[in-house]
Amino acid sequence: MSRPVSITLQNSQDGIAIANAILADNPEAQRKSFPAMTKIDCPGRLSILADSVSERLGREWDPQEIHMSVISLSGSVDEDDGSFTLFWR
Amino acid sequence: MPVVSLKPGYSGPVRDRVENFHGAYLVYVHWEGHLNFCSAITLPLPPTTPFAALADEILPSLYQADPGWSGVDLAAARWTLDGEDWSPDRTLALGEQGVGHKSLIRFWTA
Amino acid sequence: MVARKLSLKQKYGHFTRGLDWEPSYQKQEDIFPFATYEGIKIHDWNAWEDPFKLTMDAYWKFQAEKERKLYAVIDSMAQNNGQLGITDARYLNAVKIFIQGVTPLEYQAHRHFAHLARHLPGAGLRVAAQMQSIDELRHCQTQIHTISHYNKFFDGIHDFTHMHDRLWYLSVPKSFFDDATSAGPFEFLTAISFAFEYVLTNLLFVPFMSGAAYNGDMATVTFGFSAQSDESRHMTLGLEAVRFLLEQDEANVPIVQGWIDKWFWRGYRLLSLVGMMMDYMLPKKVMSWSEAWETYYEEAGGALFADLARYGIREPKYADVAKAEKGHVSHQVWSIFYNYAQAAAVHTWDVDDQHLDWLREKYPETFAQHYEPRYRAWREQAEAGKRFYNDGLPQLCQVCQIPMAFTEVDDPGTISFRVSEHQGEKYHTCSDGCRDIFEHEPEKYVQAWLPVHQIFQGNCGGATLPEVLDWYHINQGADNFDYAGSPEEEQWNAWMEGRRPAAFPAAAAE
Q1: Is C279 exposed, middle or buried (0-12, 13-18, 19+ CB in 10 A)?
Q2: Which residues in chain C have their CB less than 8 angstroms from residue B70's CB?
Q3: Count of other CB atoms within 10 angstroms of residue C251
Q4: pLDDT digits (tens, 9 = 90+) for C303-320
Q5: Which of B99-108, C101-110, C216-225, C352-361 has the lowest mean pLDDT?
Q6: CB spacing of C236 vs A3 below 8 angstroms
Q7: CA closest to C382 among chain B residues
């Protein structure tokens, strides 16, 4: 069983779109709801794809915008122009 | 092992040297088995304080906040001083019977 | 020819390493005098890159947006009398602990990350430290702005900076950060960025921010979210900085391990005040301290240290003690604040039956046996008009500075006394963890400004309690004593009465 990575997002418009994109693009991801926030756990690795979020938001979304929505995360971070990934080395 | 420091030989003022307490020692007292008093109590006591004053005045003034204190017989209590068994002498001053700066006195009553 | 946009990686490189240079007429060790004395060996500073690849232009943009959103909420809360929406005025005591104890630490962090932004030899780390310095100042400011609204109506908030530097329980957080800021840059990164902001962060954030959410304090929730988005960068800095140290040279491993042991324990002891807050001061509870420790340390920390094992790092020393104590510490700290309510700028109160039920359920192995009888006895005394107060000043731990109310792991009826000798003087500590810290660097801790000892040296305004409370700037009869009978309680009851519909007929008496 792979160690879980996780990300906790605000339940803002952007945060909800990001959460939905994660769940759609990472089959083993699981959602847990809390007041005003959503936590997503996933074994080993989780990727947020910019195109996937953009589609859900109806506008161009840049992975650096994650700073506006993230509350907490667990795992090492890798970010580039098209995606934001959490993983354990 | 000395503390790792930018300049070797680092040291600073010892803030609780006995000289800073105007003739008193710090003495810690604790009534075992009564954690309604959350911790040991810190007292500034001159070493010339007779044990009788501690037993008859100071400890009662602190511990009578517990309704059970009225039934306590300190003469029958068991004492330790700095981790060793202790039989305090009422007629002697604290400083004459082993109590020093930052000593810890613990006592158990029936 | 179409102008090509730089990739994130390229832009980051230009804004960090690209703006750095090799000194040509001054020595590296003169420019960076703090870089080697701790014994840490770094062979390639450029091996550290911010995984978020955040550059100053993006930083300003995102942070400005966060500020705009946050201040709109603070304004709205003030205009709409948001203080009426909290569950109960007792909740405010959690906010008081926060502004008195935590907010000044944000300022200390701001100052010290500015120091690191100058003194770390790597450009990537300097930029990340610079951003964190501004983040921490922003956290300090936004906390003050948010909580200033409560200052209009509630006690104990009015002079938090003065109190932070003087009050007996506030020397606990203050000395924690003083210890870190008087250490070298690598110890500071391990202590604060890694141990506090990565390993232990959820044990500060979840109790306060979820506590705010559950108790109707939407301003604090909003501040919390605004800050937490910065915290994910801080957490990442902590984790990646520690990895970087461990990867640069094997000689760094035992040094870092020693710091992890020390700062896990210091952070854990500091958090016992948060455990008290979450078990006692939240009218609507989020979870127990015991549950929080299990979720956010035992489970999450377990995964983390399993990951770091590849470098030769093991779990912190005395993690087993923290686990063994999780059924006790919050109750022991509440007992401290109950004992000394007359000398504190937060209220405590007698625990009602509903609360006793919750505590018994959450702590099935410890509460009914060790703490419920004490609380019931205290409640009886209060009902008889003799509310219990401890007239003696407590014995403080030389290292964590908390009153020594913690008990032996195998005997919850016996205080855990530890003592060390250094140059002919005795030093008392509360635990093996604190004793080890003392004995490793006694020259540091013999200098501790212990509030109780300072009172007896005559340095705290006088020999009587009222004089000391004056020196603390405690508004006597308002900030201190029990919540029952306080001006705050009277005000709260009047507000709640005012909200009840006047037209309803009174219920018939039985």
Answers
A1: buried
A2: none
A3: 10
A4: 889 889 999 999 999 999
A5: C216-225
A6: no
A7: B65
State the pLDDT confidence band at C1, using cuts at 50, 70 and 90. low
From the list C389, C404, C413, the residue facing B65 with the nearest CB is: C389
- Residue with token string 């009564």: B34
Percentage with pLDDT > 90 across chain C: 89
Q: Do B41 and C184 touch (CB under 8 A)?
A: no
- The CATH code of the domain at A4-87 is 3.90.56.10
Q: Is the pLDDT of residue C26 over 70?
A: yes
Residue type, C395: Q
Which one of B11, B38, B106 has the shortest CB-CB distance to C403? B38
pLDDT score of B1: 57
Judge: A77–C228 Cβ closer than 8 Å, yes or no. no
CATH code (residue C237): 1.10.620.20
Residue-level pLDDT at A74:
87
| Domain that includes residue C282, residue range | 32-343
Amino acid at C450: L
Q: What is the CA radius of gyration of chain B?
A: 17
Q: Inform me whether the pLDDT recorded for B56 exceeds 90.
A: yes
Question: Residue A72 carries which DSSP code?
Answer: E
**Which of C470, C492, C465 is CA-nearest to residue C342?**
C465
For C136-149, the pLDDT digits (tens) are: 999 999 999 999 99
Q: Long-range contacts for A26-34 (Cβ within 8 Å, ≥24 apart)?
A: A34/A8, A34/C210
Which chains, if any, share at least 3 CB pairs under 8 A with chain B? C
Inter-chain touch C53–A74, beta carbons under 8 Å: no
Note whether A touches C: 3 CB pairs or more under 8 A. yes
Quote the mean pLDDT of chain C.
95
What residues in C contact A4, CB-CB < 8 Å? 303
Mutate to test the interface with C, among A12, A74, A87, A88 (most CBs of C within 10 A): A74
Asked, for residue C223, whether it belongs to a domain, the answer is yes
User: Residue C206 pLDDT > 90, yes or no?
Assistant: no
Interface of C with B in 147-186 (CB under 8 A): 184
- How far does the CA of residue B90 sit from the closest CA of chain C (Å)? 22
Task: Among A67, A68, A83, pick the best mutation site for testing chain C contact (most C Cβ within 10 A).
Answer: A67
- Grouping H, G, I as helix, E, B as strand and the rest as coil, residue C412 is strand
Quote the pLDDT of residue C510.
44
Tell me which chain B residues have a C-beta less than 8 angstroms from the C-beta of C184.
4, 6
Given CB atoms, is A10 within the 8 Å cutoff of chain C?
yes
Domain boundaries in chain A?
4-87
Q: Is C36 helix (H, G, I), strand (E, B) or coil?
A: coil
| Helix (H) or strand (E) run with residue C316 in it | none
Is the pTM of the predicted complex or chain greater than 0.90?
A: yes
Average pLDDT over residues A35-61: 94
Note whether residue C499 is domain-resident: no
**C189: nearest Cα among C48, C315, C16, C302:** C48
CATH architecture group of domain B24-108: Roll (3.10)
**Would you place residue C502 in the very low, low, confident or very high pLDDT band (cuts 50, 70, 90)?**
low
Any idea where the domains of chain B sit in the sequence? 24-108
At residue C214's C-alpha, the angle toward residues C210 and C220, to 5°, is 60
